[in-house]
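Whiteboard transcription, Tuesday session. T.W. wrote the structure tokens on the left side:
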């Protein structure tokens, strides 16, 4: 078996937020960033999210995936330059979240699971930031689903019925 199968599917491990080092001109310090990633993301497959952290919360900026090494994928110059433009124009700290595939054994990387995760992350990120820097996968063909108290519901206390359904479906464990 290539990945650990939990009762609910393939497991991804979340790391972050990792502060992305920038210089005085608010450009990514590539060397320091490579050093940070060396310990956590080299050689691991999965997805990553660059975001801007401010006093008001975290805003996703870019969602990506890698089938071999998130560390190498995160430091691609075209991605970093687009992120630099955002952080030069807006206040906040550039941060990175990693979602690495929890692999067991030597089998092939589950590209389908990584692609599914990336698609889902992009959908969620667009809900928070319609100006996501991604070029692919950001056009919605249908409006997002909304179930008050359960899915894309915004702030507020969920109804008794929503809490009961959430518990019945095991969704309360995901919060």
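and on the right, the sequence the group agreed on:
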């Amino acid at each position: 078996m290539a990945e650990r199968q939990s009762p609910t599917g393939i497991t991804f491990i979340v790391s972050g937020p990792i502060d992305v080092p920038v210089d005085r001109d608010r450009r990514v310090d590539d060397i320091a960033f490579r050093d940070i990633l060396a310990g956590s993301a080299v050689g691991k497959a999965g997805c990553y999210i660059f975001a801007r952290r401010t006093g008001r919360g975290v805003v996703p900026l870019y969602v990506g995936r890698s089938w071999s090494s998130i560390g190498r994928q995160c430091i691609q110059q075209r991605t970093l330059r687009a992120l630099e433009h955002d952080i030069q124009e807006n206040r906040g700290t550039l941060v990175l979240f990693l979602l690495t595939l929890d692999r067991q054994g030597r089998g092939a990387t589950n590209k389908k699971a990584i692609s599914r995760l990336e698609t889902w992350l992009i959908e969620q990120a667009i809900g928070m930031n319609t100006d996501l820097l991604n070029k692919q996968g950001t056009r919605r063909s249908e409006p997002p689903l909304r179930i008050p108290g359960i899915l894309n519901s915004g702030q507020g206390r969920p109804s008794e019925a929503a809490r009961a359904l959430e518990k019945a479906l095991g969704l309360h464990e995901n919060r």
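Someone added at the bottom: The beta strands are 5-6, 9-10, 12-19, 46-54, 57-66, 93-101.
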